[in-house]
Design brief:
CATH class of the largest domain in chain A: Mainly Alpha
CATH superfamily of the largest domain in chain B: P-loop containing nucleotide triphosphate hydrolases
Strand order of the largest sheet of chain B: 6-7-8-3-9-10
Largest sheet of chain A: 3 strands, mixed
Strand content of chain A: under 5%
Number of strands of chain B: 22
Number of helices of chain B: 18
Number of domains of chain A: 2
Radius of gyration of chain A: 24 Å
Strand order of the largest sheet of chain A: 2-1-3
Strand content of chain B: 15-25%
CATH topology of the largest domain in chain B: Rossmann fold
Number of strands of chain A: 5
CATH architecture of the largest domain in chain B: 3-Layer(aba) Sandwich
Helix content of chain B: 25-40%
Structural class of chain B: alpha/beta
Distance between the termini of chain B: 40 Å
Shape of chain B: globular
Oligomer: heterodimer
Shape of chain A: globular
Order of helices and strands of chain A: HHEEHHEHHHHHEHEHHHHHHHH
CATH class of the largest domain in chain B: Alpha Beta
Distance between the termini of chain A: 36 Å
Chain lengths: 427, 533
């Protein structure tokens, strides 16, 4: 067979240089990091008192093992690292290591910022890590719900509503039956219910999926808010005092220093979230279910001509996703404070959506995104609690700013599943 | 969930198919009207008909994608009902769709196993087994392909091979090939015909759907001709092309275009070192030089997807270039990189007519009336509009004239354009673009999906524009159309013009150029570059 007619994908890097000329994505990012690094070195460096030390402890409190760093020197030094990486990218030396360079630059910038912030104070790394994971759990489960739906071709903007409904049902039924386990199941079913409504309207009645998701979020807010005001709040002893899941220490593993307290001393919901990431990853890539899910999300007509029931696959995935997001909601009540509050999901569903896009529709990527946003959240609450010079209103923005920067700046051009959001109608 | 590997309800390796009195209606339209068709084991049966004759509908009925209103499907003398493609697959029928049913981000093996996955506990995929299945079939029928390659990275000819393997792995004994040659280079077509012969030798039956007479004569054992949903006759491959065409169209047609030799004048379009990126940011047009003179037709030949769309869009000011220049009558359309010097409106106003490749998407507003579509480019100025208002009477009168002149079959000028047949929609586009004096006509795939009668008409109009002194840039993936119309032929391959040749150049040479083989490269083994044969 002679050289076939169609253009074949060629080397992406060479192509992008050819098309975009000098200012490739790597160079643009390099320039941004370089400027950010200069800013960090100068501003954070100057703002830091010269004689103070920044103490990073490997514990939950200030005592115990830790590292003391001369704050100003390191605020400047980390800024310089950021500058160097930025310069390297700008010079075109790191163009094949975009991800790693970005990770180093962003980490250095954050560390420079921290040296300034905690000069004269301390930062408990283990405590921060614990908090990060704890805050990430609803995001992990929420974005898994998104992964399941969107890989099969249904956009799920209703994650927020699923989390809220899950949180509400968990608290309500947990209180009524005085059992956290009943609460967990009820939470899953609550999220699943929203998922089922989404599925029917999107798949059967072809409603625009983004609009539908937004409407379902408002619906969930309205219903839970009304029931909370009318019944739950007046009778909070009967309806809003669910038992909560305690910390479940895994024997031996929990005693490993540093890692143990972070990973092996959590509630059942946290373990569930991590296990689900592993299961969904394997299932998507290694099983018949996963192959069919991906086929339906990429090319439903092809799947149909092979006898795969496209709508059935989508129904199943969206509803399972709803169940998972409902469990994520439970993490907010019975996996946490043990009380439902009005609109307590507070935009976490949308951050989960951002984590999904940040993670390029893969479960592990979504996990990474969820942890990143969880970290921003944990950091803001710690800095607020130690009376940072930055006004708390700005600190509260941190997770959202991180979301915008991550999704708009770092992700670059991502490719959603081809049939994402497109209802399948047999011709 | 049904998830067993396909369990065959029959065995044997050959299959006899009869369709008896198949009728399928869509509303008032009778797409298939009591169609009878018999395909013997080991037979290549061509189903010949124009676009819209009902061939694809019939095959979708056979493949379980559509429910027939009447009639029955008989496989090996047993009447069968196919509620879904799975039933058809289980009965031993495989289909290669015109638009491939392959998931581009999957590997070959994944595409082949999809829907018939072999699994161990928990639905765990047995990928080794899938690769072995692919290897076994490609070995048996000499269909070489790498099971681990992503489909998106494969050229179209090989993708088609994957589709055939998909059917064979499912133990299909009858293969439906729906317009399989539409997207192939001449060499790839030859390869496909070879594959079809070897399948036939193995006892497989093939239904070969096409409107191309040459291929039918080359490969078919028997020919059934369909017109407007009915079987209008059967023919032997020994029938002449003219006889087949007459049967297909219902009257005598001229397959060649009458034209005088060209009398080229001054250059009207000059493309100089033009480079254009496609939607993904890849360089789709790579430093092309072209000149079109007044009074000549420059044909651009090439398999689709080699940069023709991007070239045309850049010329029309619809897509920014990344380098090079375009000049129209000596004035720059595109001067420097990324800079569109003239808007599309200005390009049109300077006497350029544009027939886009995708009329449904770029050529017409389907919900607008025929009359409105006929003035889409000129409603702003006299006589059709003034200031903020339109002149409906002028629009109507002009529409009636054009409908007459261009033989547009529509109930009235107020009929929505989207309800017309493909050929008549195309005539609306052509009529609009040719209703003002042109210095350049850019026509991309001007007769795609258009019936033979309308094709004749459109071809004649294109030649008439040329004889009126306009330059014509004709882009087509139908080599016959290019050979019939063009005065010079530029062959595009992967964004470059490999050569500009005369229209009496042998077909084979142009075919090789379309596949990227130039005289310099033909000898040095680069033909084996893709290593598929």
């Amino acid at each position: 067979m002679v050289g076939p007619g169609q253009a074949v994908l060629s080397d992406a890097v060479a192509e992008s240089v050819a098309v975009h000329g000098y200012w490739t994505r790597s160079r643009k990012a390099g320039l941004v990091y370089l400027l950010a690094g200069v800013f960090a070195a100068v501003v954070f460096g100057l703002a830091t008192p010269a004689h103070e030390t920044a103490r990073f402890t490997l514990s939950v409190r200030s005592n115990g093992a830790g590292i003391d760093l001369p704050a100003r020197v390191f605020a400047v030094a980390f800024g310089v690292v950021c500058v160097l990486v930025g310069a390297g990218m700008l010079g075109g030396y790191l163009k094949r290591r975009f991800g790693a360079s970005t990770a180093v630059a962003v980490t250095a910038f954050v560390l420079s910022f921290l040296c300034w912030q905690i000069a004269g104070h301390f930062l408990p790394l283990v405590g921060l890590a614990q908090q990060t994971l704890y805050l990430a759990v609803p995001l992990i489960l929420g974005s898994l719900a998104g992964v399941l739906g969107e890989r099969s071709g249904v956009i799920n903007v209703a994650i927020e509503g699923q989390l809220l409904t899950g949180a509400f049902c968990g608290a309500l039924f947990g209180s009524i039956f005085a059992s956290a386990w009943v609460g967990l199941v009820a939470a899953a079913l609550g999220g699943g219910l929203i998922g089922a409504i989404l599925a029917v309207l999107a798949i059967r009645y072809l409603v625009d999926q983004v609009v539908l998701g937004v409407v379902l979020n408002v619906f969930a807010m309205g219903v839970t808010g009304y029931l909370y005001d009318r019944f739950m709040q007046p009778n909070s002893a009967a309806y809003n005092t669910p038992p909560i899941f305690g910390q479940l220490k895994i024997p031996l593993l929990a005693d490993i220093p540093v890692i143990g307290p972070v990973l092996f001393q959590n509630t059942i919901i946290t373990y569930l979230a991590i296990v689900l990431v592993v299961i969904v990853t394997l299932a998507l890539n290694k099983t018949r279910w996963g192959l069919r899910t991906r086929a339906v999300g990429e090319h439903p007509t092809a799947a149909d001509t092979l006898g795969i029931r496209v709508r059935l696959v989508r129904y199943r995935n969206v509803i399972i996703g709803g169940l998972i997001a409902g469990v994520g909601g439970a993490a907010l009540t019975i996996g946490s404070v043990g009380q439902f509050g009005k609109d307590m999901s507070a935009g976490r569903g949308f951050i989960a959506l951002a984590a999904l896009i940040f993670g390029r529709w893969s479960p592990t990527g979504a996990l990474a995104g969820a942890l990143l946003f969880g970290f921003a959240d944990a950091l803001q609450s710690y800095l607020t609690s130690m009376n940072s010079v930055i006004p708390s209103q700005f600190l509260t923005m941190l997770p959202y700013i991180a979301t915008i920067l991550a999704v708009a700046g770092l992700v670059g051009k991502v490719r959603a599943p081809s049939a994402d959001g497109k209802p399948y109608v047999k011709s | 969930m049904r998830c067993r590997p396909p369990s065959r309800q029959r065995r044997g390796g050959t299959l006899k198919l009869e369709l008896r009195g198949i009728t399928k209606r869509f509303g008032d339209l009778v797409a298939n009207d009591r169609i009878d068709l018999t395909v013997e084991p080991g037979e290549i049966h061509a189903l010949l008909g124009e676009n819209g004759a009902g061939k694809s509908t019939l095959m979708n009925v056979l493949y379980g994608l559509l429910d027939p209103d009447e009639g029955e499907i008989v496989v090996d003398d047993v009447p069968r009902k196919f509620a879904s493609p799975r039933d058809a697959i289980n009965a031993g029928i495989g289909m290669v769709h015109q638009h491939f049913m392959l998931v581009p981000v999957f590997t070959v093996a994944e595409n082949v196993m999809l829907g018939a996955e072999r699994t161990s506990a928990f639905g765990w995929l047995d990928r080794r087994r899938a690769r072995r299945d692919v290897a076994a079939v490609s070995e048996e029928y000499r269909l070489r392909v790498d099971p681990d390659e992503l489909v998106a990275n494969l050229p179209v000819g090989i993708q088609q091979r994957v589709e055939i393997i998909k059917a064979l792995v499912r133990e299909a004994d009858l293969l439906i090939l729906d317009e399989p040659t539409a997207v192939l280079t001449p060499q790839e077509i030859d390869d496909l015909l070879t594959v079809m012969r070897s399948l036939k030798a193995a006892g497989k039956s093939i239904v070969f759907i096409t409107h191309k007479l040459k291929e039918v004569k080359a490969i078919a054992d028997r020919i059934t001709v369909v017109r407007r949903g009915r079987v209008v006759g059967t023919a032997e491959p020994s029938a002449s092309e003219d006889e087949l065409a007459a049967l297909m169209v219902g009257r005598n047609v001229k397959l060649t275009v009458d034209k005088e030799p060209a009398t080229p004048g001054d250059p009207v379009l000059r493309v100089d070192g033009l480079s254009v990126a496609d939607d993904r940011g890849h360089r789709a047009v790579d430093a092309i030089d072209l000149t079109v003179h007044r009074g000549e037709i420059l044909g651009v030949a090439g398999v689709e997807g080699n940069g023709q769309t991007e070239l045309v869009e850049a010329i029309m000011g619809l897509r920014p270039a990344i380098g090079g220049a375009v000049e129209l009558d000596g004035r720059p359309v595109l001067s420097s990189a990324r800079h569109v010097a003239a808007s599309t409106a200005a390009v049109l106003a300077s006497g350029v007519g544009y027939v886009p490749a995708d009329r449904g998407h770029d050529g017409l507003v389907a919900d607008f009336s025929v009359g409105e579509n006929l003035v889409l480019d000129r409603y702003r100025s006299a006589p059709f509009g003034r200031g903020l208002s339109l002149k409906p009477t002028a629009i109507r009168d002009s529409a009636r004239e054009l409908i007459d002149e261009f033989d547009i079959r529509t109930s009235s000028q107020a009929t929505p354009a989207g309800t017309l047949s493909g050929g008549n929609q195309q005539k609306v586009v052509v009529a609009r673009e040719m209703s003002r004096p042109l210095s350049l006509l850019v026509a991309a795939q001007p007769t795609r999906g258009v019936d033979v009668g309308s094709t004749e008409f459109i071809h004649a109009r294109i030649v008439a524009e040329r004889d009126n002194g306009a330059g014509v840039l004709l882009v087509s993936s139908e080599l016959d159309e290019i050979l019939g119309l063009a005065d010079r032929i530029a062959v595009m391959y992967r964004g470059k013009v490999l050569a500009v040749v005369a229209p009496d150049t042998p077909r084979e040479r142009i075919g090789l150029l379309m596949a990227g083989v130039t005289e310099e490269t033909a000898g040095d083994g680069s033909a084996a570059e893709d290593g598929d044969e």
